Amino acid sequence: MAFNDFLFRKKYYGYKWSIPCEVCGSGELQSEEKKIQEWETFESYANRNSDPENWESEYYEGAFIAELSCDAEGCGNNIAVSGQSIVEITDIEIHDPEDGPQAIESVIYLPRNFSPVFNLIEIPMEIEFPIRKILYKSFELYWLDNDACANKIRQFVESLLDSYRVKKRIRVVKNGTAKYISLPLHKRIEEYTKTRADLGEILMAIKWIGNAGSHHSLGLENQDLVDAYRMLDHFFEEAYFIKTKRKKIKQLTKTILKTKKPVSKSKRKK
C-alpha distances in angstroms, 156 versus 59, 122, 123, 248? Predict the structure, then answer.
């Protein structure tokens, strides 16, 4: 699964969602107009009726729930999505110069929850499930809270270092007394960098984004999270997926060299 910027959109226009299906791998999750339920919030309704003369459609606020279904024949995968809906001017048309330009308004869907949530990036299966689960949780938070999502990604990095057995504390002696002190994540990444400098730098950069998520006053942008996932995706490629690809190519090469013929022409064991 290559990194897909399209998956990180937080605005959807109409009912054409086009999210790749993870079940069959060939179809896309789409909705239909009849499968989207949308209603105006009470606050929006009250404001519109209290001052109708000054009401603009851009003031509209709504909520929605929809069903997304895979369009591949025989797949049958479905997920639910819910969130907010707003109205935006998406285009300008001129039918009659005397009437002037006319605004084209569209309903915009802002998803806040997918059930089940889809993977924003592929996670190597070699990583233990309890650790993968932390990153899965970050996928849920991505749609809800930028800071919380960044913190969860940071937590994943910490747990990943645990699985690599990077030391969490050191022994120090002061005034003849020995004690153990915990190492902060920064120091632990520096320890890991001693063995994999290229990958350690990636984790350090991700850590800084996670740190920013802890300081809510900084206000993380959505692009910051995309950057973190992009770097993490590259980390997985270098640390895991390339190894798997090399292993498969090595085995294929060995098989062909041994038989001195294409695999399709070799006798296969039944």
Answer: 39, 14, 12, 28
